[in-house]
Amino acid sequence: MTAFPRSETFLERLLKLGRRAPKLEAQARSAERPQGPQMKQPTYADVEAQPKRLLEVKQRDGRMNRYPPPESWDDWVEWDSKAWPKKVPRRYTLVPTICFNCESACGLLAYVDKETFEIRKFEGNPAHPGSRGRNCAKGPATHNQTYDPERILYPLKRVGERGEGKWKRITWDEAVREIGAKMRASREKRLDGIMYHVGRPGEDHYANRAIKAWGVDGHNSHTNICSAAARAGYYLWSAGDRPSPDYAEAEAILLVSAHLESGHYFNPHAQRIMESKAKGGKLIVLDPRLSNTAARADCWLPTWPGSETTLLLSICNHLIQNDLYDREFVRRWVNWEQTLASLADWAETDELRALADAPRTFETFDRFLKLRYRDFTFERAAAEAQVPLDRVEQAAEIIARAGNRVAAHTWRSATMGNRGGWQVARALFFVNVLTGSVGTVGGTALNSWNKFVPLSYRNPRPFDAWNELHLPHEWPFAMYEMSFCLPHFLKEGRGDVDVYFTRVYNPMWINPDGFMWLDALRDEELMKCHVALTPTWNESAWFADYVLPMGHAGERHDLMSQETHAGRWIGFRQPVRRVAMERAGKEVEHTWEANPGEVWEEAEFWCAVTWAMDPDGALGARQFFESPDDPERPITQDEYWGWIFEHAVPGLPEAAAEEGLSPLAYMRKYGAFEVSKGASQPYAQEIERADTHEVDDLGRVLVDGNPIGVMVDGVPRAGFGTPSRKLELFSQTLFDWGWKEPEHVVPWPLESHVSPRAIDREAGEMLLLPTFRLPTLIHTRSANAKWLYEISHKNPVWMHPEDAARLGVKTGELIRVQTEIGAFVDKVWVTEGIKPGVIAMSHHLGRWRLQEQDGIGAGMSNLARLGEEGSARTLNIVHGAQAWASTDPDTSRVWWQDVGVHQNLTHAVHPDPLSGAHCWHQKALSVRKAAPGERHGDVWVDTEASMRVYREWHALSRSAVDHSPDGTRRPLWLKRPLKPVANAYRLPEKPFGR
Amino acid sequence: MNYGFVIDNRACIGCHACSTACKSENEVPLGVARTWVKYTETGTFPDTQRHFQVTRCNHCANPPCVRICPTAAMYQRDDGIVEFDGDACIGCKACMQACPYDAIYIDPETHTAAKCHYCAHKVDLGLEPACAVVCPTHAILAGDLDDPESEIARVLSREKVSVRKPEQGTAPKVFYIEGAAVNLVPTATERAPESFAFADVMAAAPEDRPATAPGPQPQGLPSGGPITMGRTRAEHMVQVGYNQQHQVPWHWPVPAYLVTKGVGAGVFGLLALAFLLGIDFDPLTAVVGGLVALVGMAATTALLVYDLDQPKRFLYILMRPQWRSWLARGSLFLIGFSTLAGAWWALETAAWLGFAPASVAATARPILLVTGLPLALGAAVYTAFLFAQAEGRDLWQSPLLPFHLVVQAAVMGGATVLIMDAGMALPAGLGSVALWTLAIGLGLDAFLLLFGELGTSHASEVAARAAHRITHGPWRTLYWGGAIGLGHALPLALLAMPSPLAHAAAGVCAVVGLYCYEHAFVMAPQEIPNS
């Protein structure tokens, strides 16, 4: 579209003397700031050198080269693009790292100037097996984050009241000493006083190892607002945490997600999904909104949220009734004997109960499947999901034709949107099971088969502690910590926190019910010390006691592996300036010496703070951070990673030796290593059976009573990590722990809190889908990436034209959306790309700051005022984005004003009764045109209503106190990110609230 | 070597990676873009679709931006890459008018034109452009179209491809597999959006579409855009979800320049014609007339230089001219005419002040006036050829424009002389020549406007759309009130009155009216989207 001239009157047009639209007055922000001066913009050295021409190197497919060849990475000359066509050479050393802007851990290659050590750009790393040298929009934007003029450059300590915004710059030494002392004081008193609350982990083991070294139950995550429900569904089937589809080879790809634009692992997944499509694979997408992924689908199923389970079961039923399922796979790997044996206990019809007495043959099980799922017809699915019948049929046909090459994935989406969403994942994996697509080529593996986490150096033992604030007794099946209810738990008096670390986490902003978080973060009795480890300002860090700047993708050490495809790899994140300096012969002791300002990295920080906490080793923590050569000094990063690469990554030492490098030097050079390739089915692996092994009546091979495998057709095989060692269609665990009803024990639809019955559309109620994500957003960390914000900065409410006509609003006009606990005002985007009755908002926009001069950049955030009266809380927007003057001339060119609306504040917490996951979808009690005086971005919430809704959902939970079969808090086989010793599982003598 | 791109829309997922990789590789400032992903949404729920289109410079085989560039800052390399040299650019923005694809912008840092240059600085080392490297789904293919072995050549020979606006004759070399008409055709969407799905719109264009009407509509101007997929938005959506936004390159200095140039050339031309018709005029008339012509030309030059984004480089037009550009050619007319008019005026003034013998002036007068006449004509008319080179603005490419500019110059000449006449005693014959020139000129001009350039049908939809914006859209008040009413009807009425003051007033009205018309004529086509 060209030309959006300002609309002007005739006179203005005639009299207009300015040639261009008037520029926003760029406002200077304060120069004297506690967090240090504005980040300087990079400069590159003038050199005399000739670049190497690669024209002689031709690709087989006739393309040009895409990357400098690795042998030239250490000394690479390129023409300066800005001076071009003048030929100005620039000389770089190329240092690989991995991206930090989602969990995919894609490879990046940093071009570091050999003299100034400034980073010119981040390109893809061709040596990375997951991302294969390619990136999404967020990869190159790492440069923005690095040179964000508003980034925090030095450790800060609060000097005024919490949230007052008064800070003093301190040294790292002071920060480490003071925080270490607080940790020691807490640790000496108790084992549940330190809490590490992580948003973006960005690594696989280092922080967890530190927590274990401290001996506390200290791990808290964001997972229960992210993916916990999907994980629960997969776990109940298979003891696998999440799916790892082999998209590239799939015939059918079934997504309850938007992996062509978001989710784990967007870029590596998108590459392979489109590869499959190019080869004729078919893509089916369930989403009430026309996501970019749905736009590329061969079959888009715009389901009413909560109906996904029914729709997926109709596909299953089609396979079952028509004998299109993989009988042999199901017979070998599903716990059908156990299922049949259980029928007498739970089957609700005579027909089904009769099967309990029938011969325990697979034919009986086949009969069971046909009876149990026969009501899931296409017609029923189409009616409940409100989608065209022919599309349901089409989807089922695609699946039926795909053999055992069905790659399926769900991560957040419907599983996290709806109450009972864990059954969506269970129904989805049912499709994999019925088609036998489990670990097959083109099928769906489990994450651990494609993820490689090496054993760490000196592994601390599990702790003997249980933090009630993480996993209270009411939710024994909570897949991850009940993190988003922390403020509600604190308000109920369940405990307090001595040292609260937030790590790349902005709990007040990202969680539902943020005003409850605000109250908690301000309360110095409950949150005694809050340390924010963050690469950039965020709303929660503003209320912290210490704000410690931690590095972006090119500023830190981390080791990561992700199950991006059929194969296993590790990626090594590096502080690229430090590596470049070391390559140039400079000595760097701490990474903060090489990073901008004094930005540090957690890997060194955890080591230092553990030494400060346990200076004499009396707590037993220090030993894990001692140098292998000299226990009297902390371990260095080279020592730590050198040990792992040498001892714990099969094949790496050999690959390094081939190049004449040490394993560490190899990883510093290439940044990634492929551990293995291709699809695998570890469950089918034959195990050696010794005479001492017993076999029980479930066919399990036992050693000292513990199952290590399962007999399949007379052959001992590894099986799955479930209690039956099989894929569990029927879950004995759920049955034993009080979820005995037929709709729980097997894959079955549960009614969502936003089902059509719950939303009275006649009365003007609507369903707010608040979770979708744009391909350019990094959760709440996009706000220091100008190229990303320039493309996407606002989150208007998507609305179908029918609804818009009913409300009398047009695109761009304001509406007020009332939720159970509050209301917000936002603009409307009218589109046919959304289901009537559903409104949707992208998730990560609406950032705000409280002071004009400080905090998140003025072009990326609203200036806001907080208000409080009794239980009422308000957020009012003073003004939207503005251009501002900084070290980066681009900030004066910010041309947008709307930076979105912080909708999450108005979301009530909805802890799923079983999985504990937050059920994101919100019931919009009313949606109407905004009244005069209601302004864009304004938010109002009643925190009394917050607690009321919390209690309503809390009442639906089934406590271990009432249902535990063995006096423990939680089934032992369920995953916990950090598992304590078995002893810690005993229910407390005085459970809270009893 | 002949570089081009294939954009494989079957693989594109609309992720914007190419956009940020380009910003990173080429250090492109905020507010402008060398490549972007256009989103268009179509359909009726649940039969809805979103179309993505990677949009950028087409590296045309026949690049109009190169042809129009007066300093060869925009140039075509031997390997087919259309490249630019910021150091040579004077910021005239003509290339932005010539490009039918919105590919060029003015860099806010360097104040020079810039665009996708195929990462030539990388290609020269044997490396692919940054966008092709980053693309997660290999939807951007870069390579040599002439090499039968290359991936891009093989794909091109196999697949059905389309290009943007082939009718412009630019031979674009960005080929789209499964190009979507609603994205390829910039005016396909019903209207300029007030917002995008996730980004602000800088300022919405004023509405100019007639209400949807079934059946025949004005020729070449289908209401709702050239691609109709239903009638109303609720029944069948066609809306832009995201697009790069572009600034209008030329504003008031350009129409003002057209007026001052008309005055300068017109006064001189009228005096010369009058002289040739045998109307003898006194030295004072020659001095004042010459001065007015010179002031007109000086103002013209000043406006031209003022409108440059690199005004200090205005001499580059002469120092490194690219002679196929009508900006460069036009500058010769302007300089030639100004020099001659200046010489004449200097001679007449010297004679009038007594510094030179009157006989010298009298002898030189016919020679200078006769030689000057074609130069004045050239100065008046060359802009028509420049506008014709602006291939991004179809309305400007009117075959009537050269003639129209002559008529305008005549009108300005007549008007100016009548104004002069009110202030000083001009020879009687000259006044009536001016009066008749103005009267006939206005009549002709009105005819050209009403039944020529704006009143008839147009060869292309975008020209029709631009004309419609002038006559029925947001510029209609300026056009009907300013250009037609104030600029033609009123002066014709005033000329009918037997008063020199009324005649002078008619002249003033004609000048103001011309500005009104030119303003609308310059602005409206620039408001029609090219991407």
Describe the fold and architecture.
The complex is a heterodimer of chains A (994) and B (531). In chain A, the strands form 9 sheets. In chain A, strands 27, 28, 29, 31, 32, 33, 36 and 37 form an 8-stranded mixed beta sheet that branches. Chain A has a 7-stranded mixed beta sheet with strand order 7-6-18-17-16-8-9, sandwiched between helices. Chain A is an alpha/beta fold and 994 residues long. Helix content of chain A is 27%, strand content 18%. In chain A, α4 runs parallel beside α22 (602-613), α13 packs across α14 and α24 (652-658) crosses α25. Chain B is an alpha+beta fold and 531 residues long. Chain B has 17 helices and 11 strands. Chain B has a 4-stranded mixed beta sheet. In chain B, strands 3-2-11 form a 3-stranded antiparallel beta sheet. In chain B, strands 4-5 form a two-stranded antiparallel sheet. In chain B, a hairpin with a 2-residue loop joins β2 and β3 (47-56). Chain B is elongated. The mean pLDDT of chain B is 93. At the A-B interface, α1, β5, α6, α7 and α28 of A face α1, β2, β3, α4 and α5 of B.
